[in-house]
Specification:
Arc Repressor Mutant
């Protein structure tokens, strides 16, 4: 398929994913690296309480809060 045809399909809102090899797709700047952080039990309890309230995993709360703080700092 030529690029022009691909672009036209995309612009028309057609599903183009069948034309892509997503097995090696990456999001630049979004690569993941696992880190371990030790929290006091009282923090874990409050994080879990907030996670339950929002219906999301604890890790999601931590990621969002850390991201918000870093955006403010930089």
């Amino acid at each position: 398929m030529k690029a022009r045809e691909f672009d036209q399909k995309f612009d028309e809102g057609e599903d183009i994913t069948k034309h892509l090899d997503l097995s090696k797709a990456r999001r630049p700047g979004q690569e993941q690296k696992r880190v371990n952080v030790d929290f006091p039990l009282w923090m874990i309890n409050l994080l879990d309480k907030e996670a339950r309230r929002l219906g999301v995993p604890r890790q999601s709360i931590i990621k969002v809060w850390v991201a918000e703080r870093l955006e403010k700092a930089f």
